[in-house]
UniProtKB/TrEMBL annotation:
This is Uncharacterized protein. It comes from the Eukaryota. It comes from Patella caerulea (Rayed Mediterranean limpet). The keyword Nucleotide-binding applies. Residues 561-796 form the ABC transporter domain. It is a multi-pass membrane protein. GO terms for cellular component: mitochondrial inner membrane. Its main location: mitochondrion.
């Protein structure tokens, strides 16, 4: 159950009550934690402190050993090893300790953490014991060795007998080895007790139903963007990126040595033509090598970036598409699309090109500064005096600009959403002559983004100016001081520097200044990427509230549908209950008509049967089984829906009909024939290959409906959900659609949101839904005889419309109109 999360913390996710048993099976305390939760370990804890001490021990030992051993003495120390004069052994032991103990303690901690959840697991118990013994044994050996050596050295020093002169740092190394080994030994003994305390130390993270972490008051905890997770996106590209880094070393190297040769060219020009030629040739070769490396670096980094973003987009989209329908009620399409396009793009740049630039500029700065120090330390000192001012300013600017950029991006995203909404509903816009309104809305959003953009531009300008001034100021300072040194050199060759060296130095200064300026712009990019990553990871990690996976598959589905005391409220409108304690039964093979005033909850019932939403309480049963226990993929294959205004996809007729399953051409044609679509399809030039346009705009209403019926029929559904069209089709088209529907209904369980009296009359049962409750149910004749809501609904239509009885729209009473209201009018 325990796993390693992105922060390197151990955690175990559970949805059940956790028994807080003791590792060794001592008295256990049972704590009940309700809801999903997991544990992690705090970063400041025993094992981490211990690992840090061991690491410091290792670093100190190596540094003391290396700094103490210069020239011959250093080699002598290894080759002619002497227990009292060499410390090579202690340095090696310290390095080994770092490796052994860090691995062993991490392992031990992992096992101990598992033990807090499985305290009686014998396997874990014995593993933990073995590890403890191994750690204590090793630390004892290391301690005994260091103390023996320390004692012998001390003895030799006091008696001045065998004592050979050791470098001062070597003496320090012996003392540090003794002290650290005693400390580590004590820690290893205490680890027996400390590891047991993990269950007290661990941090409880509660999650809400949305999978978000919440605090003890139930409020969502604001997540922190994690650089580590950001970098982990490019993990599969690690080999590519390593290669690109190698190429980067080459290109940066060439850039770093080039100024040196520039200087040499200047000096050679004053001396010898042969030397000048060979130096220029070397310079040329350096540049060619650098250019090749640059090409490889840029190509591979960009390629890796493209791969990262392609994978990220696929994963993100697959996470989005799995979300429950309610998620899309509250999140605007444009916003989600923005995450997919621009946020992922920002991340692509961050994980590849920005990281490569970061490494490149850092290398450039460090490398150039080292070379500058070698060339002339005092001149470098002068330059470095200005660097802290520039970098401090750059960091402050980065912080400021991060906020500005975020605002700008947010406003731009709003504008994008507005544009998308208008364009995707262009027909409605045209119908109501809403072009001016749309332009105004979009314009006002763009104006807001522009006003943020103005601030950003001013900040950019101010920064460029200031950094430029500081950078050129530094160059002028170097020029003046360097010029002074060149002058001194011209007076006395032993003093100052040559003009060539000053040239090299100036070029290095430019290189460092440029790298600094570019680094500061990277800071803003990284901050922007962190923001984008937070939004992307939030979406990617979100677990759908209504799962699309797992569940039971029944050998047979008979079409039985039942609602048992179902209450439901749309999550996007939590204050308004829509279905209130509904009980209804649909038997296999029945045609059940749902009728009632608009907004009563008929479509909601259909959505609950499709499990687009889960009820707040009560159960929806399908084939006698609770819907939430069934495999959604499976049961949705058995239920087909034809809605009032069917949505087609922007592909061919053939692909639209076969949207729900892989079908042969023959099956597609058969379904089209059944739905009276075949004839009109054949009149098209491209037949079944005809493209229907976005949402099927290139087809008429009746044609769209018949394709949608064919799409439903090809699934051979057990249950057919129908929302009868209210939109007026011409008589011929209406007849064809109705005929197709009648054919589709045969031999199936049908739940139809009925608008036509002919449908209601032929239904096995009519259920009148009003304000989320069943007002009446029975057959058409029974309900008419009953003299209730249904009869009044029908009569109102008859008197109001004076139309053909069959064409009446029984549900056309407005939302909120009770039947009584209707009558009173
Ligand atoms: N996605 C949604 N989010 C929030 N509220 C919704 C949503 N869909 C519907 N509603 C609300 O739920 C109530 C019932 O709507 P529903 O569409 O089920 O009614 P209906 O009986 O099918 O109406 P009509 O005959 O007009 O289609 C209405 O008040 C409606 O505003």
């Amino acid at each position: 159950m325990a796993s390693q999360d992105e922060d390197g913390l151990l955690h175990g996710k559970r949805n059940v009550n956790l028994e807080n048993g003791d590792i060794q099976g001592e008295e256990s305390v049972e704590t009940e934690i309700k809801g999903p939760h997991y544990y992690s370990l705090p970063s400041l804890r025993y094992a981490n402190i211990l690992k840090t001490i061991i690491f410091i021990d290792g670093v100190i030992s190596i540094v003391l050993w290396l700094t103490g051993g210069h020239s011959k003495y250093f080699v002598d120390n290894i080759v002619h090893f002497h227990l009292l004069a060499s410390v090579f052994d202690l340095a090696i032991i310290s390095s080994l300790k770092v490796i052994f103990f860090i691995v062993l303690y991490s392992w031990l901690e992992k096992i101990s953490f598992k033990q807090t959840e499985n305290p009686y697991d014998r396997n874990l118990q014995s593993k933990s014991k073995i590890l403890h013994i191994l750690i204590i044994l090793l630390s004892t050996i290391f301690m005994v060795y260091s103390m023996t050596k320390g004692g012998l050295v001390l003895n030799a020093y006091l008696n001045q007998t065998d004592y050979l002169i050791m470098h001062a740092t070597y003496n320090a190394l012996v003392i540090s080895a003794v002290c650290f080994s005693i400390l580590e030994f004590i820690f290893s003994l205490y680890s027996f007790i400390a590891m047991r305390k993990l269950k007290i130390l661990r941090v409880l993270h509660r999650l809400n139903d949305d999978g978000q972490e919440i605090d003890s008051d139930g409020k969502p905890v604001k997540k922190k963007p994690s650089l580590k997770r950001l970098a982990s996106l490019a993990k599969p590209e690690f080999p590519m990126i390593s290669l690109a880094c190698l190429a980067m070393l080459g290109s940066s190297g060439s850039q770093m040595v080039a100024p040196l040769f520039f200087g040499k060219v200047v000096d050679a020009a004053q001396k010898d033509m042969g030397e000048l030629n060979s130096t220029v040739l070397t310079l040329l070769l350096i540049y060619i090598g650098g250019a090749i490396c640059s090409m490889v670096r840029s190509w591979i980094f960009t390629l890796a970036g493209q791969r990262v973003v392609a994978r990220l987009r696929k994963n993100l989209f697959s996470s989005v598409i799995q979300q429950e329908v309610a998620f899309f009620d509250t999140n605007r399409t444009g916003e989600i699309c923005n995450r997919l396009s621009s946020d992922t793009q920002v991340l692509q740049n961050a994980v590849t090109s920005n990281m490569s630039m970061l490494a490149r500029y850092l290398l450039q700065i460090i490398g150039s500064l080292v070379l500058m120090f070698v060339l002339n330390a005092s001149l470098t000192g002068v330059l470095l005096a200005v660097v802290p001012i520039v970098s401090l300013g750059a960091v402050q600017y980065g912080r400021f600009v991060k906020k500005l950029r975020q605002n700008f991006q947010d406003r731009l995203a709003d504008a994008g959403t507005t544009a998308e909404e208008s364009i995707s509903s262009i027909r409605t816009v045209r119908m109501f002559s809403g072009e001016t309104k749309s332009v105004k809305l979009y314009g006002s959003d763009i104006d807001k983004s522009y006003s943020e953009g103005k601030k950003l531009a001013a900040a950019q300008g101010a920064f460029d100016g200031t950094v430029g001034m500081l950078a050129y100021g530094a160059i002028i300072l170097v020029l003046w001081y360097g010029g002074k040194l060149v002058y001194e050199n011209s007076q006395d060759k032993t003093k100052g520097i040559t003009p060539g060296l000053l040239t090299s130095f100036l070029l290095y200064t430019l290189q460092v200044a440029m790298a600094f300026a570019l680094l500061s712009s990277l800071y803003g990019d990284f901050m922007q990427a962190l923001g984008a990553s937070l939004r992307i990871f939030d979406l990617m990690d979100r677990k759908p509230l209504v799962s699309n996976e797992n569940g039971e598959i029944l050998p047979l589905l008979d079409g039985h549908v039942e609602f048992k005391n179902v209450f439901f409220t749309y999550p996007s409108r939590p204050e308004t209950p829509v279905i209130k304690g509904m009980n209804l039964t649909v038997n296999p093979g029945q045609v059940v008509a749902l009728v009632g005033p608009s907004g009563g909850g008929k479509s909601t019932i259909v959505s609950l049967i499709e499990r687009f939403y889960d009820p707040d309480s009560g159960t929806v049963l399908l084939g006698g089984r609770e819907l939430s226990t069934l495999d959604p993929h499976w049961f949705r294959q058995k239920i087909s829906m034809v809605s009032q205004e069917p949505t087609l996809f922007a592909c061919s007729i053939k692909d639209n009909i076969a949207y729900g399953k892989v079908a042969t051409d023959q099956e597609i044609e058969e379904a089209a024939k059944q739905s009276n679509a075949h004839e009109f399809i054949m009149t098209f030039e491209n037949g079944y290959e005809t493209l229907v346009g976005e949402r099927g705009v290139r087809l008429s209403g009746g044609q769209k409906q018949r394709i949608a019926i064919a799409r439903a029929l090809i699934m051979d559904p057990v249950i057919l959900l129908l929302d009868e069209a209210t939109s007026a089709l011409d008589a011929e088209s209406e007849h064809l659609v109705q005929e197709a529907i009648d054919r589709a209904m045969k031999g199936r369980t049908v739940i139809v949101i009925a608008h036509r009296l002919s449908t209601v009359r032929n239904a096995s049962k009519v259920i009148v839904i009003e304000k989320g409750e069943i007002a009446e149910q029975g057959t058409h004749d029974e309900l008419l005889a009953h003299n209730g809501v249904y009869k009044r609904l029908v009569l109102r239509q008859l008197t109001a419309g004076g139309m053909n009885f069959d064409q009446l729209d029984i549900n056309s009473i407005q939302n909120g109109d009770t039947v009584e209201n209707g009558e009173n009018k």
